[in-house]
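User: Could you check the structure of this?
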Amino acid sequence: MKPRRGKNDTGAAALFARKAKAQTECARVLAVIDSSAGVGATIREISVATGMPDHVVCGRLGDLRKAGVIEEAPLRRRCRVNGIVKKVWSRSPCTGQMRLPVGRTA
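Assistant: Sure, the predicted structure tokens are below.
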């Protein structure tokens, strides 16, 4: 393999930009969950409120769950968007002041 010469290291810049974007997305998802008046929010409700596609919301929920910031509620409820009974995500009771996760790097 030939070494790259005269090229900027765009890989590191792209990784930094992706982590920053994931952190912003996590903050938006968490804001919707916090504004849900204690009943939590479904993936579809978060997707509609943030304008992010469902698959992006799922990724950010995974990041937040892994960091211990949110948890899956024990009971399901009807989604306010489409009326289907779905899983609900809510803030973990003992989160305190935690740093938001920076997202997956792969």
